[in-house]
Amino acid sequence: MKKNLHPELHLVTVVCACGNSFQTHSTSKELRLEICSACHPFFTGRQKFIDTAGRVERFKKRYSKTA
Fold this sequence. Notes:
The protein is an alpha+beta fold and 67 residues long. The chain has helices at residues 41-44, 52-66; strands at 10-16, 21-26, 31-33.
């Protein structure tokens, strides 16, 4: 391998906004995440349900005035 071509890898602790932390290798010195596998709905199986009925009603109300 050529010298001084590749960036240095550091062992860093990744910290998520939910409080979860884990170690990995990265070229940056510090990693902070907003969402990780411990708090992402796909991995946890929990989903937040949004009030879609309120959105649909507002949409219909807004566009019924123009018709």
